[in-house]
Amino acid sequence: MTLLERFSSASFKGPGFDQIRFAAALLVVFHHSWWGVDDILYRYSGGFVHLGLFAVIVFFCISGFLVTPGLQRSADVGKFAVHRALRIFPALIVVVAASMFIIGPLVTQDSLTSYFSDPRLYLYAKNVTTLMAHYLPGVTEDGAPVIVNGALWTLNIEVYSYIALAALSIVGALRHRSLALAAFVVAYVIYVGLAMSPALNAMASERLINFIGLFVYFIAGANLFLFGDRVPFSPVLAFGALIVGVAGLGVGLGAVVLPLCVSYIVVYLGLSDLPGRALFKHDLSYGIYLIHSPIILAVTELSGLRAGWPVAIITTCITLVLAYLSWNFIEKPALDRKKAASEWLASYTRRWAPLRSPVKPAPLPDVVHPSSPGE
User: What is the model's pLDDT at position 366?
Assistant: First the structure.
């Protein structure tokens, strides 16, 4: 059986992806509220990756695999953009606003008059565009400004990954999949070069390093879908990838092995029937990811606790409740409007587009078109 055959048998909805995303989101929570950077994975990999970053890598592998089918099937970049925007921005806007007008006033050292008159408060609103603004007025620890929601840095890379995927679709790379493979190879070579060459790393911008460090996993996931009719769905291959990945990390070859091994393992598990599927009727992972950092800030500032297991447990409990509310009252209602929003955009585009004769693209024989999008 191939990956595509397994995906098709599950109606293009991998049965294990929700569990994996949920576990990865909780991993990020515990990373920020308890373990910090210097965890067991960080020490084992010689400083290459820690558990929090590993969880983000998992998210990007899944995202690349699940968002590619719909775009490949329709080649409708406008529809793709609408769907992605409705997944990212409604909850993000609410979390940024709550950080500014609820969390900030609770923990600021400034007077409320000074807080609400400070331009930094309103500068923080640019986070709704996925451009980072870290600080709120008077939110400090030992006199130093505290980053309110550092987890948001990955959203900008997620958006740029979507843009890159849309660009690949426009040039036909999702139909002529060898071009998508070439995109992965280029990203992989740059990623390995930056990781293995200190001189090259020193010359590169931080934005490039951050982008390529996650995009390589996104495009790896995308290619696993595009070549899913050739890649076997194999527990032996998944176990082999695990062995190679663990061994490579231990000898300083993390950049070489992780994009190849983690992407396959994550997709294999996502297409597997993992235990507890019935418990995941709500996709809480995105809400957990967005919400947990401001909650950690509030818990530590208001209780006087420092990073450790009490903060992790309290934060997890509060975050799960808020993520549940976010899914049911913000995220799911927004996603339920995907079709209506796409139709509105299509009608608006037709209204203003120049008249032209429609041309139906000829189907290409080497690409499978799933009957429904993967996410």
Answer: 40
Residue 364 has what DSSP assignment?
P
Q: Which residues pair with 2 in a beta bridge?
A: 232
Looking at residue 13, its pLDDT comes to: 81
Q: Is the pLDDT of residue 353 over 70?
A: no
Structure tokens at 219: 């495009």
User: Which residues partner with 145 through β-bridges?
Assistant: 140
pTM value is 0.91
Contact (Cβ atoms closer than 8 angstroms) between residue 98 and residue 107:
no
- 106: CB partners within 8 A, 6+ apart: 298, 301, 302
In tens, the pLDDT along 87-142 reads 999 999 999 999 999 999 999 999 999 999 999 999 999 999 999 999 999 999 88
What's the pLDDT tens digit per position in 232-286? 999 999 999 999 999 999 999 999 999 999 999 999 999 998 876 656 678 899 9
227 burial via Cβ count (<10 Å: 0-12, 13-18, 19+): middle
d(CA 17, CA 21): 6
How many CB atoms neighbour CB 333 within 10 A? 12
Task: List the single range of 53-67, 111-125, 348-362 with lowest mean pLDDT.
Answer: 348-362
Q: What is the dihedral of CA 242, 243, 246, 249, to 10 degrees?
A: -110
CB neighbour class for 96 (10 Å; exposed up to 12, middle 13-18, buried from 19): buried
Q: Which of 335, 322, 345 is nearest to 87 (CA)?
A: 335
Backbone angles phi, psi at 2, to 5 degrees: -95, 170
For the chain, give the percent of residues with pLDDT over 70. Answer: 91
Q: Where are the beta strands (DSSP E) in the chain?
A: 140-141, 144-145
Asked if 53 and 195 count as a contact pair (C-beta separation under 8 A), the reply is: no
Cβ-proximal residues to 335 (8 Å cutoff; 6+ apart), any chain: 86, 87
Residues 242 and 262 sit within 8 Å (Cβ to Cβ) = no
The angle formed by the CA atoms of residues 42, 21 and 239, to the nearest 5 degrees, is: 65
Euclidean distance between CA atoms 84 and 51, whole angstroms? 26
Report how far residue 162's alpha carbon sits from residue 221's, in angstroms, rounded to the nearest whole number. Answer: 13
Angstrom CA distances, 39 to 25, 42, 50, 99, 338, stand at 17, 5, 6, 28, 40
